[in-house]
Amino acid sequence: MASFQRRGKNSFLLVAEAGYDGKGRRKKKTKTIRIEDEKLLRTTKRLREYVEKQLYIFQAEVEAGEYISPEKLRFEDFVKDWHEKHARKNLAVKTHRNYTEKLNNYILPYFGSKRLDQIKPIHIVNFLDDISQPGAAASKREKPLSDSSIYEIDKTIRVVLNKAVEWQLIKKSPMDGLSRPKVRKKKMKYYEGEEVIEFIKIMYQIDVVWRMLLITYAISGMRRGEGVALRWPDFHFEEGYIELTRSIPLFIDGVPHVKSTKTDENKRIITMPQWYMDEMKSFKKMWDAEKDLIGDDWRGGSVEYVFHSGDGVPYTPETVTTTWAKIKRKYRLKNIRLHDLRHTMITFLLNEGETLLNVQERAGHSSSKITTDVYGHVTKKANKSTAERFNKFDPRQFVTSTKTPRPNRNLAIE
Predict the structure, then answer these.
(1) Exposure winner among 74, 191, 352, 411, fewest CB in 10 A?
(2) Where in the chain is the domain with CATH 1.10.150.130?
(3) How many CB atoms within 10 Å of residue 209?
(4) Nearest-angstrom CA–CA distance, 145 and 138
(5) Helix, strand, or coil here: 376?
(6) Of 228, 207, 193, 192, the residue nearest 327 (C-alpha)
(7) What residue spans in the chain does CATH classification 1.10.443.10 cover?
(8) What average pLDDT does the chain have?
(9) Phi, psi of 303 (to 5 degrees)
(10) What secondary structure does DSSP assign to 282-351, as a single string?
(11) C-alpha span between 136 and 42 (Å, rounded)
């Protein structure tokens, strides 16, 4: 019969029945749980109900053959549980996919066969040092991993081990106390001045679909997934703005995975210049005519994605990135990433003296701190420009003498 007993101030030993051995003797499994909720520990009835519930879950796991003693649990077996019982249910699809890539390519080949409770801080230190060398990935890539890649791998293993602590499979994560890998900041790239003019000129030498999509990125500052998720009802031509409510971060089995924007806001209003809205009006007429010509081959259903591959299905984020790379090479544009078109917009507005709050809202940053942290070099320049506005009050321009006399503290003013 399943039972429990208190072992300390906040720990309980759970005992579950596990059938009989070959000699007919009862087999038992034990598990220690720890309760950190001080309010719960001070109760009697609620505490007993909680422990009994944990005992019931434990007994069910034992009977189903799902329970593995922590001292026998391998890291790769725990990761399977982590995927099934947590990650697939609670993480965003793209986030889970990124964690999975880091686990499969780097972490599992190194830690997979190790017992979960035997992974020590020095093992983590050695692991991070190993993957910083060329040939560390499962793909045996020749170039060393970037600082940001190592940072993300470190983040992944922290997330997984923290869940093992939460599930009370280990008392403490071996990552506790270890500093995060440093990421050296790279100089931000973006178009400025005449480079922006050159970019616009090139846009009018390419196909109109890609012209309008890339100009949309550059002026609105949308993220890649936000741009491909645009639909015609999002465009408010009379009022002159785009209403942004969704993003397509990736496709799953050929179907766009639609989610809310990155900051999980209800909507983001992005005002656009009149010339842009006029261009989009003309583009919509072409779009409507093209849809009529497609007829039965239309695959978009009732959803009208603005930028699609010819049959109503929106471009994948990867298609946009590769097409941008081809355009840059063909027209010899300054080599910046697609995401740097967003940086171009933000930098331009800050240099033009736009308020930090307006830029933050347009960019969809959750706080102005993000804007200042990422674009600190630009805001410093803008602040200097703000100070220079007071130059028109330079007294040397209209005061006869600016020579500073000796102070007279007793000067009476009548």
Answers:
(1) 411
(2) 72-166
(3) 19
(4) 12
(5) helix
(6) 207
(7) 194-387
(8) 84
(9) -85, 125
(10) HHHHHHHHHHHHHGGG--STT--BSSBSSSSPBPPHHHHHHHHHHHHHHHT-----TTHHHHHHHHHHHH
(11) 51
How far is residue 115 from each of residues 80, 106, 174, 240, measured CA to CA in Å? 14, 17, 13, 60
Report residue 136's pLDDT band, with 50, 70 and 90 as the boundaries: low
Higher pLDDT pick, 145 / 240: 240
More confident call, 107 vs 264:
107
Say if CB 130 and CB 110 are below 8 A apart.
yes
The CATH number corresponding to 194-387 among 2.60.40.1120, 1.10.443.10, 1.20.120.140, 1.10.472.20 equals 1.10.443.10
Helices in 26-145 by DSSP H: which ranges? 38-41, 45-63, 75-82, 88-90, 93-102, 108-111, 121-131
Model pLDDT for residues 326-355, shown as the tens digit of each residue = 999 999 999 999 999 988 888 887 777 766
Residue with tokens 């720990």: 11
What was the pLDDT predicted at 387?
47
What class does CATH assign to 72-166?
mainly alpha
CA distances from 306 to 237, 270, 372 (A): 14, 16, 33
Tally Cβ neighbours within 10 Å of residue 358. Answer: 11
Decide: 363 and 341 in contact? Cβ < 8 Å: no
Greatest Cα-to-Cα distance within the chain, rounded to the nearest angstrom: 113
CA distance to 85, 89, 112, per residue, from 73 (Å): 16, 22, 11
Report helix, strand or coil for 244.
strand
Other C-beta atoms closer than 10 Å to the C-beta of 212 total: 21
Tokens encoding 46: 């609620």
Distance, CA of 110 to chain centre: 26
- Chain center to CA of 298: 33
Cα-based distances in Å from 38 to 43, 149, 166, 178, 294: 9, 39, 16, 28, 66
* Sheet (strand 26-34) strand order: 3-6, 11-20, 26-34
| Residues 212/283, Cβ–Cβ less than 8 Å | yes
CA–CA distance, 67 with 173 (Å, rounded to integer): 21
